[in-house]
Amino acid sequence: EAGVAQSPRYKIIEKRQSVAFWCNPISGHATLYWYQQILGQGPKLLIQFQNNGVVDDSQLPKDRFSAERLKGVDSTLKIQPAKLEDSAVYLCASSASRSGVGWPQHFGDGTRLSIL
Amino acid sequence: AQSVAQPEDQVNVAEGNPLTVKCTYSVSGNPYLFWYVQYPNRGLQFLLKYITGDNLVKGSYGFEAEFNKSQTSFHLKKPSALVSDSALYFCAVRVGSDRGSTLGRLYFGRGTQLTVWP
To answer: Strand, helix or coil at A71?
Structure first.
């Protein structure tokens, strides 16, 4: 099966600019996650979708970050305006079920964002 | 609060020797534990999980992990390391409760860089 697809792989922008990332999960996976991975740290969950509804966005900086999954399939994550501390790798993951706690999450290769 | 600790930033081992990457956790409720591996410029790749049952869990590429409830640990092990095992390893915990909006959230450790030299 095809894995989680993310684009772009790399993005360089100046602070205060806006940027968007795209994710297409594994076919049939109802749950989609966006993580932020800062260098030297483990991934931190930003937002979790179940189909097209938000399940957990408690760690999303909502003053500058937004995400949507309109048709319950692919998703976009946006940052506007970007700050220097947003430099990180943004990972998208999907899993088959939210209620099944044993289901592993499958990760894309991420987008590496550099803020100048 | 849920948390995961990986006490070693780096583990170095010679090829052919056994390896251990340590992980301890703190959760309220039953823990569901995972190990992931990350190669340079790639996403995380699932290795193995503990949900319930036998404390020794076997996973991909010859890796295994032992769940120890009394020590709240979930150490990753492999009997004979390969150079190709060199990568960044993450331990993660998920809360095993069916209530609350944080169901599904994985809490990751900071990662341990494993280097296997020839």
So the answer is: coil
